[in-house]
Amino acid sequence: MVRPLLVLTCLLACVAPLGGQAQEPDPGQAMLRKFERSLNAADRASLVALFSPTVPAHQVQAYTNDLLLPGAVRTIVRERDRLPLEGVPPGDGYSLIVEFFVETPGKARILTAGMDIRRPTGGDINSWRFVGAEALTSVEGLYRLRLNTLRPMAARNLEVTSEDLVLSLQDGTVFLVESDEGVTGIVLIGRGQMRFSPTSAAERGQLRIFSGNDTLISPFEEAFVRLSPSDYEERVTSASLTPTVPQERLTRRAQDIFNRESTRSFNVDLQDLSPETWYLLPPSEDFLAEIDTTRFDTLTYSRSSVQAEDVSLFRRKDRRTLALYPSIAKLAARGRFYSDDALRDYDVLDYNIDAAIDPERQTIQGRARLAIRVRATSLTTVLLRLNEALEVTGITSVEHGRLLYLRMRSQNTVLVNLPKVLQQDSDLTLVITYSGRLPSQDLDVDAIQLRGEGQEQQSGQPSDLTEPAFLLSNRAYWYPQNPVPDYATATLRIVVPPGYGCVASGHPVPASNVVSLRDIVGGRDGKAFEFKASQPLRYLAVVVSRFTRVAETDLVIGDAVAANSGADRLALAVEAQPSQRPRARAVAQQAEDIMRFYASLMGDVPYTSATVALLESDLPGGHSPGYFALIKTPLALSPAVWRGDPAAFENFPEFFLAHELAHQWWGQAVGWKNYHEQWISEGFAQYFAALYAQKARGDRLFTDMVRQFRRWAISDSDQGPVHLGYRLGLVKGNVRVFRALVYNKGAAVLHMLRRLLGDQVFFAGLRRFYADRRYQKAGTEDLERALEAQSGRVLDRFFERWIYGTDIPRIKYSSTIGNGHVVVRFEQAPELVFDLPVTVTITYANGRTTDLVIPVTEASVERTIPTTELVRQVQVNRDSAAVAEFEEKK
Questions:
Q1: How far apart (Å, rounded) are the C-alpha atoms in residues 608 and 375?
Q2: For labeling, which of 105, 249, 273, 466 is most exposed (least CB within 10 Å)?
C-alpha cells in the first residue's frame, strides 16, 4: 500500500542509521551491492539472474518493474534489519528488510521491501540468490524544486489568494518555483499589499487587539508562496504576468528568498539516502505564504488540511499565533465542536520509560517502550513527539525489528516508517533509545507574573538564588509520545545523581522493589526511583531536586461512586527542598484536608497517590501532573510584588496548593478535548480552590474571591471568549489575560451555574460529568449535557453567552419598598439576553439581612418579595455572584 508523504506539512531531517556492517564476507551486503549495481545500470537481465529459479517469473518481473523507475538516474539500497531465514540451516539464509531510494532528475521515492536470501548447502559466496521478495510500503511524493531565474515575470495588479487572504502585487517581479508536477511556488518582489480578513468573529477580535482593525492590512516588498501545482491557476491571476528580461540584482534577491524560505516548510532531508534537498508538494487546497510586511515583521499564513483548525496566521519572531480557526469547508465537514482525538492514528496504551537524569548538566539518557494500538484504517508510518534537542540512537519494534526513522526539523517530531501496512486494531510495540540535553520546563503559565514600577514582566524561571529544580513535563517532550495526547498507563524508572530526590507521575514503588537501571546509567553512581501509574494519565512528568520526604500518610476516602471509578484510598506525601522543610508538615495537613474535601464533593480520588513537592522560588506558582503537585513558594526576602495578578489572593496562602490539587480531578482525570476547553481544567481548579477557601476560612474570603473573579471577568472580557484558551493575551504577550478569563471568568461561570441550578443539582451534575468523562477528554458540550440531564433544563444560551461570547450584560434595575413587600425589576437588552443569577439583599431596620437569588433569564424580570419587617435598604449583587454591570433606575 502506498501512503503519500504529502500529508506531512513540516520539515524532515536526519535519517536513522540503517544497520551495522558485518565482517566480510557478508552475503547480505554482497547481494544488495550487486542488486544496487544492476539497478543503476538498468540491467534487467542481471537483476533477474540474482533471483532463484524457484521464484515465479511474473513475481520477479513485477518486482523489478517497481524498482526500475523510468528515467531513474540513481538508486541507493540500504539494509535496515535481518533475521535468520526460517527452515534452512543456520548461516544459509536470511530475511532482510531493505530500503530503496529511487531517484529521477526531479522526483524520488523510497520503497521498503522484504527480501529473503539463501545459498545451496555448501555453496560459496557467489551461490547466494534471492528466494523471496515482497514490496511492503513506499514513501512517495519527494520532489526537487527549481527556481526559474531565466524567465522572470513582470507583475501588474497580480493577486494570490487563499481563504481569507489576498496578496496583491501592484507592480513588481515574480519568479516561479517549479517541480516535475508544475508550478508549486512563487517569489514576489515589489510593491505589494497583504489583506487578511478572518471569517471568525473571535479571530477578528484578536486581530483588532493586535492591529487595531478587524482586517489586517500591510504593505510588503517580499513574499514567498507554496501551493499545490493543481491550485496554481485558481490561486494566482497568471494573466497578470508577462515574461521580462532577467536582472542580476533581482535574480540574486529572489534566490536568497528561495534559499531562506523554502527550507522552512515541506522540506525533506534524507542524509545518507541522498545528500541533496528534497521537498514535498502541498496537497490540494493547502497553502503557505511567508510575507515580509512593513508593519508587522514577517507573518506566516498557512492553510493545512491535516490540522483540526486549518487556517492560521503566525508571527515567527515572537512565536505569536495571531489567528487559528477552521476553514469554511472544515467547519462544514466536522461541525463546531471537535476533539484532538479525531486526528489520532493510534493510541498509546502503556508507556514504560527508563531514564537517567542529571539535573546539574540538564541531561537525560532514556529508553522508552510504547505499547501501541492502531486506530486508523491502516497505518504505514508512526509519528512520535520528541524534543528536537534529544538525539534518537535507535528505534526497534518487537514485531518488526529495527525500523527506519526520520527526524522532522523544527517540529519536535520523529517519523517511523513501518515495514508493512498495519490494519486497524493491530498492536505494535516500539522501543526508542535517546539522549541529550534539555532545559528545565518553564512554568510561564503556571506561575504568577508581575509588572510593577521598574520591573519587567517575569516568567516562572527561578533566579540564581533559589535551590534548583529540574522539571520535565508536558511541554518539554522529554519522552517519545503520541503527538495527539491520549490517556495511557505507565511505568517510570528514574535514576538521579547522589544527593538528589525525584517525584514523578505514578504511585511510588518501595525502594526494595526498584529494578536496577545500571544499563541505563552506564555504571555511574546514582539512586533509582520507580513509579507505577495504574490509572491512565494524559502525560508524564518528573521533577528532580534535593528533596527530603517530610511527611506521608495513607487516607481512606470512602466508597467509590462506581465499580470502574477512581481510588478510595490515597497515599499522600510531601517532599521538600531544604528551605521548605519547616513548613512541610503544615502543608501535609492542609493537603490532607483539601483532598478529603474534594473527594467528598466528587465521590473519590482519581489516583492512588499524591505527592506534594515544595520548591523555593522568586514568585508563587504551581504545576500539577497526574499523581503529584509542584508548589513554588517565594523566598522570604523576595523583592517581587504580584498583587496585580488574577491569581493573587492575599488572604488565602493555601490558594496554590488548593488549586493544583484540584487539577488531579480537573485537567488530569478529566482532560480537555482541545485547547479551547482549557477552562475545564483551570476554571474548575480555580473554583474548587475557592470552595475550599470557604470551607477552611469562611464565607467572607469566599465572597472576596468571587468578587475578584467578577472584577477580572468584566475588565478583560473584551480580550476574547473563554473558549479561546491559551491564546487569550497571546497577541499582546500578556499571559495574565489568560488567567483573568480562563481561570477567573471560568470560575465565575461555574458559580453562576451553581446559583442558577441550586447546590444539589449543580454538584450532582458535576459528579455525573466527572464519572462520565473520567480518564477521558471532555468539552463544554459534555459538561452541558451532564448538567442538562441532571437539571432537566436547556443550557444552550447560558454557555453560548458565557463561554463562547465576550459580551458582559448591562442590567438596569429598580426596587420599590411597599407595605409587606419589595418589588424588584430587572431589564437587559432584548437582542442579547443572558441567563444570570442576581442576589437581592434586603436589610431591615433592625440590621438583619436576607438574601434571595432571582434568576434573570428574560429581557424583563419582575419579582415581588414578601417582607415581615420594616425594610431599610435593597441591594443588588452585593455578593458579586453575577458577572454583569448594574445600573439603578431612579
A1: 29
A2: 249
